[in-house]
Automatic annotation (TrEMBL):
Lineage: superkingdom: Eukaryota
Designated name of the protein: Phosphomannose isomerase type I catalytic domain-containing protein
InterPro entries with a match to the protein in the record: Mannose-6-P_Isomerase, PMI_typeI_cat, RmlC-like_jellyroll, RmlC_Cupin_sf
Positions of the Phosphomannose isomerase type I catalytic domain: 1-43
Organism: Tetrabaena socialis
Single GO MF annotation: mannose-6-phosphate isomerase activity
Any one GO biological process: GDP-mannose biosynthetic process
C-alpha cells in the first residue's frame, strides 16, 4: 500500500486556514500551510 501525499489547493472561494478542514488535513500530512491563503481542495 502506498501513502498518498496530497497537495492543498488555494482558491479565493476557499476558507481561511484556521477555519479550513483542508488546511488541517494538509498540516497532518506534513505540508506547510500559509495562514494568509484560503484553502479549498486537497488532492
Amino acid at each position: 500500500m502506498l501513502q498518498l501525499r496530497c497537495a492543498a489547493q488555494n482558491y479565493e472561494w476557499g476558507k481561511r486556514a484556521e477555519d479550513s478542514e483542508v488546511a488541517k488535513l494538509a498540516r497532518a500530512n506534513g505540508s506547510e500551510v500559509d495562514d494568509a491563503k484560503p484553502f479549498a481542495e486537497l488532492w
